[in-house]
């Protein structure tokens, strides 16, 4: 038998690596352009196939996780994504670059449906472990630009891919030596951890689809737009790009803290009890942000980030609680496919709404979209209490 804490530690490391690897190019492309003799606008589109594979590939990888082995799939993830990052460091042509970034996206698609299902299978306190896992993913997002910038400045852009690739493969080797394939169908976490009446399951599925589409779109839109919003609206406080970056990072810290807090609450209370009050956060904060600037905008932005990050934890816990072991990876595959597809569409939507009426129009539009999160929480049925054994 595997040690649950050891398995969860490797899965958390995988979440960090997954998000970190997908964002290296976004930071490195600034210094890659002059080195390859290409403009920023010419290089950036080569990342598109990788991001498409990141979402679309989850359907296949989730199915393989259920039907074959989650442990084997995670080993493929560590070695595959590490090798792909190293390969980017050796590319010589744009076609090779596009192929290497596509490979990163394909292997990155393994993590969310497979790794999240492993968390559920081994977690004694699901909400707490979901919250901690979310924090690790956010650390990957936050550190990618910083570490890539430092390595790129002192060692060159190629090593910004090679160094984390080597580290990832070493983690994969440690994972292979420490974690074995294990059938978890007989464990206490194998069954669905929350029960609803059979005739109400359609309400769970509908609520999940609604909230995933609304929150994934809003979450990605906020992360894309926040730096530009701060640059425009915090001009009276500072115009320093570095300080604006620090402010944005501090705002995101509150999001990570919220994921941990919401996770702990999900261990103590029913999912609807936590989801319903949380669903009322985003819409009013987004609406207020449309007309604010300077310190009031920073405070409201903290509320937006807390609401969005908290909802992500609720969404993941919803799938984990209501699905059984044999279907769990496939359920997460559908959840992330829908979520990543909606998130991908949000970038173009942000650009179009900003063109129509600036951040006022954009933030009002996403505030209206987040009313769907309230509807989803209201649709969610109450859980059936099961008698505890003496």
UniProtKB/TrEMBL annotation:
UniProt KW keywords: Cell membrane, Membrane, Transmembrane, Transmembrane helix, Transport
Keyword Membrane included in the entry's annotation: yes
Major localisation: membrane
Gene3D superfamilies: MFS general substrate transporter like domains
Listed PROSITE patterns: MFS
Protein name (record): Putative MFS family arabinose efflux permease
Segments passing through the bilayer: 20-40, 46-65, 72-91, 97-123, 135-155, 161-180, 201-222, 242-262, 269-289, 295-314, 334-354, 360-380
Membrane topology, record value: Multi-pass membrane protein
Molecular function via GO: transmembrane transporter activity
Pfam family for this entry, one: MFS_1
Domain Major facilitator superfamily (MFS) profile: 7-385
Source organism per UniProt: Bradyrhizobium sacchari
Compartments it resides in: Cell membrane
GO cellular component labels: plasma membrane
């Amino acid at each position: 038998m595997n040690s649950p804490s050891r398995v969860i530690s490797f899965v958390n490391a995988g979440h960090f690596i997954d998000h970190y690897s997908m964002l290296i190019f976004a930071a490195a492309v600034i210094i890659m352009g002059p080195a390859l003799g290409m403009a920023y606008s010419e290089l950036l589109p080569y990342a598109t196939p990788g991001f498409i594979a990141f979402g679309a590939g989850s359907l296949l990888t989730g199915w393989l996780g259920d039907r074959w082995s989650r442990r084997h799939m995670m080993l493929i993830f560590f070695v595959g994504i590490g090798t792909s990052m190293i390969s980017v460091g050796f590319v010589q042509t744009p076609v090779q670059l596009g192929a290497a970034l596509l490979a990163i996206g394909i292997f990155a698609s393994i993590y969310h449906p497979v790794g999240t299902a492993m968390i559920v299978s081994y977690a004694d306190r699901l909400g707490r472990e979901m919250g901690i896992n979310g924090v690790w993913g956010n650390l990957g997002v936050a550190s990618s630009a910083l570490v890539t910038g430092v390595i790129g400045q002192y060692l060159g852009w190629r090593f910004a891919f090679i160094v984390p690739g080597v580290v990832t493969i070493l983690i994969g080797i440690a994972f292979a030596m420490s974690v074995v394939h294990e059938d978890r169908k007989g464990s206490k976490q194998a069954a669905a951890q929350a029960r609803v009446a059979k005739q109400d399951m359609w309400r769970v599925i509908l609520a999940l689809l609604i909230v995933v589409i609304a929150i994934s779109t809003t979450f990605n839109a906020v992360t894309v737009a926040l730096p530009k919003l701060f640059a425009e609206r915090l001009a009276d406080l500072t115009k320093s790009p570095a300080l604006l970056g620090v402010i944005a990072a501090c705002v995101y810290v509150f999001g990570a803290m919220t994921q941990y807090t919401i996770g702990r609450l999900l261990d103590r209370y029913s999912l609807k009890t936590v989801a319903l009050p949380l669903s009322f956060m985003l819409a009013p904060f987004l609406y207020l942000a449309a007309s604010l600037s300077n310190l009031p905008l920073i405070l409201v932005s903290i509320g937006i980030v807390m609401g969005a990050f908290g909802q992500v934890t609720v969404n993941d816990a919803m799938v984990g609680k209501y699905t059984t072991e044999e279907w769990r990876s496939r359920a997460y595959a559908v959840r992330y496919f829908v979520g990543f597809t909606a998130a991908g569409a949000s970038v173009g939507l942000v650009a179009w709404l900003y063109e129509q009426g600036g951040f006022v129009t954009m933030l009002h539009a996403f505030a209206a979209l987040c009313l769907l999160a309230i509807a989803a929480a209201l649709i969610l049925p109450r859980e059936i209490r099961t008698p505890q054994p003496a």
